[in-house]
Amino acid sequence: MTTTDTSSVITVTGVQRRYGSGKSAFTAVRGVDLTVRRGELFALLGTNGAGKTSLLEVVEGIAPASAGSVRVLGRDPYRERHLVRPRTGIMLQEAGFPADLTTAETARMWHGTLGAPMPVAHALELVGLRHRASVQVKSLSGGERRRLDLALAIMGRPEVLFLDEPTTGLDPQSRRDAWELVRQLLEAGTTVVLTTHYLEEAEELADRLAIMHGGRVVREGTVAEIVAGEPARIRYRTSSGELADPRTLHALPALLTAGRTRTGLVEIESHDLQATLTALLERANAAGEALANLEASHASLERAFLAVAGEDDDAAAPPVPELATA
Ligand SMILES: Nc1ncnc2c1ncn2[C@@H]1O[C@H](COP(=O)(O)OP(=O)(O)OP(=O)(O)O)[C@@H](O)[C@H]1O
Questions:
Q1: The whole model's pTM is what?
Q2: In terms of domains, do 250 and 204 share one?
Q3: Ligand 1 centre and the CA of 26: distance in Å?
Q4: Residues 6+ apart with CB under 8 A from 232
């Protein structure tokens, strides 16, 4: 157990999660170590089926780990659920409240289960749902339901908030409103763990993030740290002259690859954008060549994600060790 660092609100050590048994057993989480610090937003990204929800459920205390250990606020969230749950807020992918209740009735019902909740009207106000208070849940739009889920998750003023794909189905304005609300919660000191398929959301909100693939964390750090490991890219179009032939570019400094896109652009990958671009432009100027549609960009989180998604599940992965006792 690693709870000596008081700034760590969540510590995940060697966690595995296995479904089924015998020959049909499947290990969805294959040995994950993570730390989430107090007051930060930690985003968990990953390809479909990477194991994000499987891991999150263990951290939320909804399911036990098959191996390894988890501490949330210094406690085991599964075995000591009664101590941890009142201090956390959980927004699942599917909430599953009775569809015949109205928005306000649902919120009041939930309100009754909490220790020191904020008033129902305030929670609905924060997510922009007050005007829908008397509408039955089944008549809410998909995005309005997500906002109701969010209202319920924050109603108990949690110290740690888990948001599993909170803005799926929200229109762009509602998504930005939800981000603003999350920012306010962070400013008030809430620790947030978020899963999302919207990389822009992670770029906007995350202090640190992890990318999962095949049951493991394969990248972890700030957005800048993760992106720094990926090459920068230069593209241009030129129909004649030596710069039109990618094979003549091999002498450019910091060059990784040079080739052509399907649409005929010359595409260069570099590990030092400034050095490569400077040398390229000097050559173009000396030769009097015009580089049309010139584009130079550092790697984005999307590029880092796509690189992960293209990695073979087992190529870099050591075998999962035999399960230790949870
Ligand atoms: N109850 C279960 N029994 C067997 N396998 C399961 C079960 N739940 C999930 N899995 C498998 O575990 C793997 C991880 O699933 P999980 O839902 O954790 O992934 P995810 O990263 O949240 O995916 P997504 O982004 O698609 O929501 C998947 O291959 C899934 O099929």
A1: 0.83
A2: no
A3: 10
A4: 269, 270, 271, 272, 273, 276, 296, 297, 298, 299
